[in-house]
Amino acid sequence: MKKSNSHITKRLNLPLCVCICAIMLPALLAGCRSGEKYSIYQYDNGDDYICEGLRRIIDDDGMIGFADSLGNVVIAPQFAFAFPFRGGYAKVTDAGHSEAVDKRGEYHRWVSDSWYYIDKTGTARLKLHSHSTNDKFTMTIGNPGDLKIPIDSLVLNLKNNSDEEAVYGDWFIIQQKDNKGNWKEVPFDEKYRDKDGCINIIYNAVAYILEPHSHGNKVERPWMYGQNINKGTYRIVKDFWIGKYTGQQDTAYVEFEIL
Asked: Residue 116's closest CA among 93, 138, 139, 96?
């Protein structure tokens, strides 16, 4: 993780600086402030891009926050890692580590099993925690900004980090954590029960394949749970296997908290 020599600082009430050229205003604003300094986060061999009006900044301790295009600190550095804002939310984490993704060590990714999403005030809106019975296969939720009660759809981001094909299907369930920390499947919404007292759910007998070291998306629609998903801690559960099918399946989980 590289740091730049150009710094962003907090705005203080100081005497107005004289500008020679309007084009130089952002640089002068940054140069005239005093106080704690931050660097622009370095991405793709340069300063981080501005996404939805904000760019990432990093302090001397390696913590990441966000500033606007003029250098005003909007969200103070406090995250171990953060992705840019997309759709009004940024994916962040308080833990994890950097890991090289190529043999030369030129490119890195941040690895964490505890992610959550913040809005532009820095308020946590959706907390995520991913884990799997096979760490070569990961799953997370890619549409946090669209999660409203009742939940219409969940976009799952699936990644196969193994040297073999990963296979999964349409089946999934959603469980809720109770006050004792136990996981129980969310009951189906009674409005979907037919005159025979049954709630019919049909999953397609389809196998989806993820090639080695690749990723893909899967949209799941948890319509059957209806109004039974509200504020609380939940997890979506999905089975998969890697390599030749032997009758033994692994399971991936994504915990999410609706605040």
From this structure: 93
What DSSP line would sit under 128-140, residue for residue?
EEEEESSTTEEEE
User: How far is 67 from 29, CA to CA, in rounded Å?
Assistant: 13
Asked whether residue 148 falls in the same domain as residue 162, the answer is: yes
Q: Tell me whether residue 222 is in a domain.
A: yes
In tens, the pLDDT along 206-242 reads 899 999 999 999 999 999 998 898 888 899 999 999 9
**CA 29 to CA 70: how far, in whole Å?**
7
DSSP result, 54-109: EEEEE-TTS-EEEEETT--EEEEEEESEEPPPBTTBEEEESS-EEEE-STTS--EE
Please state whether the predicted TM-score (pTM) of the whole model is above 0.90: no
* Residue in 40, 100, 89, 88 with CA at minimum distance from that of residue 64: 40
Q: Does any domain span residue 19?
A: no
- Domain limits for position 169: 123-259
In a domain, 219, yes or no: yes
Residue 191: CATH number of its domain: 2.60.40
87 with 132, same domain: the answer is no
Amino acid at 233: T
Quote the number of domains for the chain: 2
**Residue where the block lists tokens 């499947």:** 185
Between CA 197 and CA 126 the distance in angstroms is 35
How confident is the model over 3-57, as pLDDT tens digits? 444 444 444 443 433 333 333 334 333 433 435 689 999 988 889 999 999 999 9
